[in-house]
């Protein structure tokens, strides 16, 4: 515990940590006011009821049968394994679509015709910004924690013994704690200011599958209603998004560990990690523009960076791109499970690494 406290104090004395936090808070403040819909929200909140026409988007889907027909019509452009998983997913979702039609979830007004733009600004633009800042900090602090001795030139002394190399556990723990603290500050301040400017108090209990809330156009399926796997209020959706962002940030910390443990140079480790992330994003964007995509492209949705880019689909069916139900939870957990064996191998190599 004493070593952990010393590591935390060492990192908290770094001007770069506080500087990065202040820069992020300043950027977030500008972003909150730049994406604000205060005027529209205040007008809509002043109305006793937002008038809506009688229309239930879930009735037209016939329990997901329409979606499956569209998928089968595009079978030539969808890899066979992906098509089977997508059909299986919508078979599972069918009863919930029927239940949504019966409950008339689509009757929720949310913010009427402004729902799409307000929701995108508050939860996706700002949510993505907060999550990416937190993820970047988690990567940087993990690499810095594991490479501090190498940067300061004290690694020959500090890692010359088995006990000295064991300090890496305290370094990892300190980096994780700082990452959690940074995440909490960024989201508390960012969303605190967001909801101070944009009054959501009158819509928290409305259904997230509001009549004007649509998924962005997804592969093969066009535009779909925001179909969730269970009835979900907007307040529940908000806390769920924060939880998923937190889980993805932890996975990014795990991604950074092997680079920090094995690389001799922190800057080289960061460039290598950044390069791999860049190549992943380029692969994702390249095949996204093609009509027919390989099966591995569907797997490229799993890493946290892609999930941050596409966070507008969290807690929905995911359209024709996400293969698994509840992908927003399963994808980062799958990544974490795949990383664990790699981390064990890297830890063994670190114990025997030549200085």
How would you summarize what this structure contains?
The chain is mainly alpha-helical. The chain contains 14 helices and no strands.
Helix content: 55-70%
How many beta-strand runs?
0
Q: What is the average of the pLDDT values? A: 85
Q: Give the low-confidence spans.
A: none
The rounded distance between the terminal residues' Cα atoms is 27 Å
The main β sheet shows up as: none
Task: Note the run of SSEs as H and E.
Answer: HHHHHHHHHHHHHH
Give the C-alpha Rg: 23 Å
* Gross geometry: globular
| Strand percentage | under 5%
Give the count of structural domains: 1
User: Given the structure, what is the number of helices?
Assistant: 14
Helix-strand category: mainly alpha
Model description:
- This protein has 355 residues and is mainly α.
- The protein has one domain (2-351).
- Helices cover 67% and strands 0% of the residues.
- It contains 14 helices and no strands.
- The longest helix is centred in the middle third of the chain and has 38 residues, at 115-152.
- The two termini are 27 Å apart.
- The model has no long low-confidence stretch (mean pLDDT 85).
């Amino acid at each position: 515990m004493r070593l952990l406290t010393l590591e935390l104090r060492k990192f908290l004395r770094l001007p770069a940590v506080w500087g990065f936090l202040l820069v992020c808070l300043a950027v977030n403040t500008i972003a909150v006011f730049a994406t604000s819909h205060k005027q529209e929200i205040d007008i809509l909140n002043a109305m006793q009821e937002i008038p809506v026409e009688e229309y239930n988007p879930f009735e037209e889907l016939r329990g997901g049968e329409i979606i499956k027909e569209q998928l089968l019509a595009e079978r030539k452009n969808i890899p066979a394994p992906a098509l089977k998983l997508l059909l299986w997913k919508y078979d599972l979702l069918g009863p919930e679509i029927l239940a949504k039609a019966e409950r008339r979830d689509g009757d929720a007004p949310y913010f009427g015709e402004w729902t799409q733009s307000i929701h995108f600004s508050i939860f996706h633009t700002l949510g993505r910004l907060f999550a990416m800042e937190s993820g970047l900090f988690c990567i940087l602090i993990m690499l810095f924690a594991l490479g501090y001795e190498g940067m300061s030139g004290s690694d020959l002394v500090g890692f010359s013994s088995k006990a000295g190399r064991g300090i890496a556990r305290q370094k990892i723990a300190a980096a994780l704690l700082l990452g959690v603290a940074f995440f909490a500050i960024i989201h508390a301040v960012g969303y605190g200011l967001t909801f101070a400017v944009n009054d959501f108090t009158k819509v928290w209990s409305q259904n997230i599958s509001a009549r004007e809330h649509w998924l962005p156009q997804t592969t093969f399926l066009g535009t779909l209603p925001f179909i969730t796997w269970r009835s979900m209020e907007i307040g529940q959706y908000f806390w769920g998004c924060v939880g998923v962002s937190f889980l993805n940030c932890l996975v990014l910390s795990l991604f950074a560990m092997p680079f920090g443990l094995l690389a001799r140079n922190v800057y080289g480790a960061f460039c290598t990690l950044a390069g791999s992330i860049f190549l992943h994003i380029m692969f994702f964007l390249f095949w996204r523009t093609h009509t027919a995509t390989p099966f591995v492209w569907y797997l490229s949705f799993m890493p946290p960076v892609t999930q941050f880019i596409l966070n507008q689909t969290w807690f929905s069916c995911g359209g024709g791109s996400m293969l698994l139900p509840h992908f927003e939870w399963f994808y980062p957990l799958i990544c974490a499970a795949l990383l664990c064996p790699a981390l064990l191998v890297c830890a063994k190599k670190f114990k025997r690494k030549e200085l």
